[in-house]
Fold this protein.
Amino acid sequence: MSHFLDINKTDPAALREMVNSAHAMKTARKGLPKGAPDAGAPLAGRMIALIFEKPSTRTRVSFDVGARQMGGQTMVLSGKEMQLGHGESIADTARVLSRYVDLIMLRTFEEATLLEMAEHATVPVINGLTDASHPCQIMADIVTYEEHRGPIGGRRFVWSGDGNNVCSSWLHAAGQFGFDLSFTGPETLDPDPRAVAFARQKGATVDIRRDPLEAAIGADAIVTDTWVSMHDPESARERRHNQLRPYQVNETMMARAKPDALFMHCLPAHRNEEATDAVMDGPQSVIFDESENRLHAQKAILRWCLGV
Ligand code: CP
């Protein structure tokens, strides 16, 4: 069973195969209308369930469009409207859905929910984001970095801000793809130590720096995310803003990085909070390519999971 649960749980050769496949599928679609089918319709006859317990624009639309381009059929389900949101167990939901569909993509809160779904499903399960990680996003981001700047191995990325679930997936990727990552942010929002340990154990250099301008010196890319994630309580908003303001990605910070450094953000953004308009809309920004590449990367993930 090829579940795609996390970058640190997936074989590095398989991850590289998926990134290369995404590049190839993107190239093959150049000039085609968005709804035109891919050659060979590799997902013909396959039914995909996309379950969301949290809001989504990019993940929802890119999985739906990607599966349809490959000839598959999709159903988008809201956790709240399913019996899942009214007391039915994850295990029973997994067993039932496995009788109807060929693959389950789940966006949920706790990582344990995803793992329980994968344990009891008899079809592949994909992590569409949990409070702990966001692997599909980082696969798309690696596709994006490489299409602009070539191989990611040996580069140094700087993550500025909250050491959240997206940061954890970047750390997993640093270990699996062989690049270094400097985290800069307040101590109370340091990244998950398990993700840091994984990257280091795989040979990546990971350092924690409190001075954002010092951290940015010589970076190949600067990455950030919203200051308040979907799983953070609203009551934490003011404190987080005060803590994270020094870590805003602005023109001063970008000027410390390499002249050809990229600016990356998974979106949605709160403009002029974690990053300024000048950076988000500037020449080094690849934020909308990241969004587009969700489509191509996830098509590669779907094919890998289904072995087609
Ligand atoms: N980046 C991302 O996962 O976007 P959505 O929340 O819109 O899916």
User: Anything to note?
Assistant: The chain has a mean pLDDT of 97. Strands lie at 47-52, 73-78, 103-107, 125-127, 156-160, 180-184, 206-209, 221-224, 262-265. Residues 56-59, 129, 137, 266-268 surround phosphoric acid mono(formamide)ester (CB under 6 Å). DSSP finds twelve helices and nine strands in the chain.
